[in-house]
Amino acid sequence: MSPDFFKAVSICHLSENDFKLLGLFEGRNVLIKNDHGQVVLTAKIDAGLPDSLVFIPMGPWANMLVGTETGGCGTPHFKGLEVDVAATDSPVLNIRELISGMGACCHV
Amino acid sequence: MSEAIMIRDAVCSFCGCLCDDINVEVEDGKVSRVRHACRLGSSKIMGHGRIQSPMIRKDGVLVAASFSEAYERAAQILLAASKPLLYGWASTSCEAAKKGILLAEEVGGVLDSTATVCHGPSVIGIEEKGLPGATLGQVKNRADTIVFWGCNPAEAHPRHSLRYSSNSSGKFTPQGREGRKIIVVDVRETRTSKNADKFMRIVPGSDYEVISALRMLIAGKGEILPDVIGGVKKVDLADIAATLKSARFGAIFFGLGITHSRGRYKNIDNALSLVAELNSHTKFVIMPMRGHYNVGGIGQVLAWSSGYPMSVDFTRGAPYFNPGETAACDLLAKRDVDAALIIAADAVSNFPHATAEGLASIPVIQIDPYENPTTILSDVVIPCAIAGVEVEGTAYRMDGLALRLRKLVDSSLPSDEEILTGILESVHRQRQRKANQGA
Amino acid sequence: MIIRGGIVYDPANGIYGDEMDLFIDKGRMVESAKGEEIDARGLLVMPGGVDAHSHIAGKKVNTGRIMRPDDARLGTQPRTAVCRPSTGYTVPNCYAMGYRYARMGYTTAFEAATPILEARHTHEELEEIPIIDKGALTLFGNNWQVMECVRDKDLSKLAAYVAWGLRAARGYGVKIVNPGGGEAWGFGTNVKGVNDAVPNFDVTPAEIIRGLAEANEMLRLPHSIHLHFNNLGKPGNYTTAIETLDMLKDIKPSRMRQVVHVAHMQFSAYGGTSWRDFESKAPAIADYFNGHSHATMDMGQLLFGSATTMTADAPLEYGNARLTHNKWSNHDIELEESSGVVPMAYFRKMLVNAVQWAIGLELALLVKDPWKVLLTTDHPNGSPFVNYPEVITLLMSRPKREAEMATLHDQVPKRTTLAGIEREMDWTDIAIMTRAAPARILGLEDKGHLGPGADGDVSIYDLRPEEVDTSQDHALVKKSLATAKYTIKGGVVVSKEGQILATPPGRTFWVDAAVPQPEADRVMVDLEEKFARYYSVQMANYAVQDAYLPHGKAILAGLSISRGVA
Description:
Largest sheet of chain A: 4 strands, mixed
Number of helices of chain C: 18
CATH architecture of chain A: Beta Barrel
Distance between the termini of chain A: 23 Å
Structural class of chain C: alpha/beta
Structural class of chain A: alpha+beta
Number of domains of chain A: 1
Shape of chain C: globular
Radius of gyration of chain C: 22 Å
Helix content of chain C: 25-40%
Strand order of the largest sheet of chain A: 1-3-2-4
CATH class of chain A: Mainly Beta
Oligomer: heterotrimer
Number of domains of chain C: 1
Strand content of chain A: 15-25%
CATH topology of chain A: Barwin-like endoglucanases
Helix content of chain A: 10-25%
Radius of gyration of chain A: 15 Å
Number of strands of chain A: 4
Largest sheet of chain C: 10 strands, parallel
Shape of chain A: globular
């Protein structure tokens, strides 16, 4: 349960243009949504990204947006997902908060 | 204070590179210094926060238990289940995998590895087309053209370029990086693309089209292509095709950028065809960049034991394989398993949220050196010694080469193999008990 | 254990169908013993079968499994109280290999090709194959160190390297596959004949083969060099075969055996200039073998149906893949080898396949001395080993051959001589080709016979040699050979009427050849440089560790060793 790891995978990287366009600033969060779910992440500029493309490292936060479908090959569709991005004042959930939504610890 | 012992040429059990030139200093039974390893490997070998004791969930809370209690409870869970899932296996030894397969046979479960959330599509691609590959040393000694497609070794496999690929040197590649052309294909710039001679940025999800276009160009049928393919100008693609064709020895390394994108296994199928066709013109090989150090090994052991390299269903007694039906993510998403043993993997973090939720409603056994999000959902937690640091064993490198992991320091904890043996023995005992009661 | 009243064929000991009792004690054949009695009255009894050339373990085999889930689905059997599950037909899982060999009455099988670098993988799989004894031949024919020693004409250094390589691989013998061609394939080319220079190494295949043959005899290895010719699988390649064999005829064997064993001769007995005028040259090859005593062969018989081709001859596999448009795996091994795997199906009505089928049979029937010809299918290249009973009955029954030929492409009688061959083999021939000869050719002193001290490996078939007409009753013969009534391995009944009763682990034989220390030191200087500059692994992690051979059995050989077995 390394805090550094969780911090590194709860970030949304955006292009400089998109970052400005969304009115973001250092430390501001973004809310990302699609048909599968939504998640709040810390916004960060990545100069290597083209506009309209965000990068979220693999991990429990990114997985809020990934569907269960595997197209018959066993592997979910992890990349190239369409999402809506907006600035938000909501906080980034911590790992326990993310998982508690799963109704954990209720069985013996 | 005792004198430091130097262990030379240890094998790093972090990523699929399995670097085997690691020098480790051990003082007072602890690793005091690690040389040659990258920061990822070094951090693993130096060690960090471990689970101290087995735990069993009681009244909603994980409480410390003995190993034998944990084995008994784990066996009870597996025996009570009609279709348990035994998942993970990528960061442990082949010796553990062998015991795990035996356990899956014994309890009639489904055994799947983390390949199904990384290079599972590559395996299916290989089932369609075969794998034209080579050992990494072949690339080091011969390759003058290297393509990294949808992978970022600079971050994920830090020593790959120096030991095996772009920056290595060998018999026919004495100039190293200077004598090579490096092409990177990705949807974004990365540290790997910064080391490239040519970076080709493609539109996300267009790998299949771009590979098809390259095949057309290499076959001399470029005239029917549109001017832009997957965000790349046809003239630029033609340039790349010419570079590939004129290579003396070319190698394509590919990662999750292509296996996880639209097309999934079809992307790999197409890339394998590209390489097969390139061999009519020159020499070309292709290799998946395997992530966890022994994700290749579980595939090998499972294939020689059951005939299939992943997602093997033993519930009928004979092995059955049908990804999309028997893969961990499908089983959990469809709520088609009623218990899970998660070993050397963090399913909760790595599965889609709604898939991982499938673990919340079933009993979960976790075997791992470290606490991770899967622990939060687990009912039995069993800590283990770390293969390659505290126990010996076998692992398969990303090119399929088997290496012997060393033991560097002692551990008071049992190995994964010993834990699985303990659970197997509990399974036998509980079965025997039940049979005796029945009689 | 006492085996009562069997009709025993033990040609190595001059026993050709005599009724006698056999005794086993502590896993070995003895003059008399007590214990369990097996009633074999009137039944065919032979030593346990020995397969000297079969692809049963290692990276190629597992690649075949991984790329062929379609094949794994065939032959699926669930686990039982005794057995692990079985899967696969041409590429069975490890467990099925052990069970299927045992069911057929075979107790020993040798993996035909392992690069030193990947030997650890081979041993992992060998150890997982239950029941049978095993060994693995080690690939040397495209190895940089070998080619450099040959180029420098430094035979004693070559011998020292071969000894080191066998020890590092825990290998049994020297395998050579398309020498020089595997290195050339590293840059996508091939060699075209034995005198064609290997790119970048200033040696020829002929020099590599001769050098390794001489080193092999210098080391007094139990087995001779085991050779897969250049140009294998190509029309007109019989001339390469004869040219290669002829340049080895003056080499003196260091033991009572051949100087060269030719792997799967069928694939190198081809005439014609293309697939269009493709024809059998088995008679020319058989003439050569009949006229010379330094060479032996195994058939590499092809049978119709499914196969998986797998070989260290990587350019051949690329050709197979392009020809059939089938899926293709390739695996080149740094400094040592190349290899490939391609699924295949052989058809009766396809002329080339039908002629190939006939060539294997012609070779076995036209070579007069059965000690020179082993029965193999080059599993799974020509067909899976479970089809050996089909091959045996083809050799024993001319009516069966005629019935089969009637179903084939009608050109077969014109392109081959098979229709005119009258010979029908008897049980002595078969016992030699499947037991006595493979053991002698491999140099396994305790295998392939039933004399005192031999391994207690016996197969008993539900066939009465004194009653059955093997020419006419070939269907019965085939059925009975497919499932031994009893297979006894090391004195334990492991299979009875097809049911596996016990799964003891088999041993793995390897050869530890001694060389004088100064020679070993000279090699080490070269190797240290190779590991520092070229290999992608450290020398310290290269050799197979003892942990991978928990049932290893070292056979001593070498320059300073006067006697063979330790």
